[in-house]
Structures are given as structure tokens and as C-alpha cells.
Sequence to fold (98 residues):
Amino acid sequence: MNTTIAIIVFGAIFTYLSRAGGHVVLSRFEHIHPRVEAALNAVPAAVLTTLVAPAVLEGRPIEWIALAVAGLVATRAGMLAMFLSGTATLVILRHLFG
Fold:
């Protein structure tokens, strides 16, 4: 098996098992403690931060502009519009300016 394919397959398996395991564990509780629920609600923001931080710290002005556009859209619209506008801005600016 090719190394790349093996990494993808095993990554998919472990991702599925970790999500299914979390679901099984949490489904056994009738009520989730408010602190646990708050921590679980903070996970998407933490993941987004880990994806955006390298682009901010090591990026060029093109990435900063795309981030600013996404930030402005986030104040007015939802998450999907934010992602689409940031991605479209980044793609267009990279196409125009390299």
C-alpha cells in the first residue's frame, strides 16, 4: 500500500473512532455538566484558531487582507458566508498577485 494512501486510510479510521467514541461516552449521560458543555462548545473556535494563526503569523499581506475580509463578513453574516468570502478573497488575490 502506498504510504500516502495508508496515512489517509488510517487517519480516516482514527477520526471516525474518536468521534464515535466521544458520542458513545456522552450518550451514556442523561445530563452533561455545564462546564463540559461549555468546553465542547469552545472546540470549533479553538480548531479555527489553530488553522488561522499560522497564516496570520507567517502570512503575506494577501493572507492578511483575506483574513480582514472574513472578519468583516463575520460581523454581519454567518459562518458559511465568512468562510466563502475569505476563501474567495484569498484565491482571487493569489491569482492576481501570486
Remarks:
- The first helix runs from residue 3 to 27.
- The chain has a mean pLDDT of 89.
- The two ends are 36 Å apart (CA to CA).
